[in-house]
Design brief:
It contains 2 helices and 10 strands; from the N terminus they run αββββββββββα. It is mainly beta.
Length: 174
């Protein structure tokens, strides 16, 4: 049966979602961690620093350092969010859509976030360390992990080094 708003039937929507998740996971295959892995990393998350983007307002940018399960404001807007789940090594079963962790080490860390507008839940999304922020079909906000601080273990920090295109590097002289 087709959805009147999107024109998609439920099977096509599930296939699209599965394909999107597969592409997100494919981007992390062979990706090196932002920092050296922490041996036997079963440490608890103390805080996570998230960068936030808005779908409509391209210049909107916010950075929040938050604790799990605590509501935080998003910029000077009607939006707020709460980090509800940490997955140290994100993996998803494409058939069931179930999210699991392949290990207890932060190899592909992800945080699940609930977004509210004027205290009303609007969206549930994921923030990743090794992938750019992504917008769901209805999402107005996208999140990316900038840093994870642990209790009793070194932090994990996103790689923020910029890649200089070869043409730009060849044209510039010191």
């Amino acid at each position: 049966m087709k959805n009147a708003r999107t024109g998609w039937d439920s099977r096509a929507a599930r296939q699209f979602t599965a394909a999107t998740c597969f592409l997100l996971l494919l981007g992390t295959v062979g990706a090196k961690p932002a920092t050296a892995p922490v041996a036997s990393h079963s440490a608890r998350v103390k805080t996570v620093t998230l960068s936030v983007r808005h779908r409509v307002f391209k210049t909107f940018s916010d950075v929040q350092t938050v604790t799990l399960q605590k509501e935080f404001p998003v910029g000077d807007s009607d939006f707020s969010a709460r980090v509800i789940r940490y997955v140290p090594d994100f993996a998803m079963d494409l058939k069931s859509g179930k999210v699991t962790s392949r290990s207890s080490e932060p190899k592909n860390p992800a945080f699940q976030i609930i977004v509210r507008e004027k205290k009303v839940p609007q969206d549930t999304t994921w923030a990743f360390l090794n992938l750019p922020p992504h917008f769901g079909r209805k999402s107005m906000l996208a999140f990316k992990i900038a840093r994870i601080d642990f209790l009793g273990a070194p932090p994990v920090v996103a790689d923020t080094t910029a890649v200089v295109p070869p043409a730009a590097a060849a044209g510039s002289k010191p």
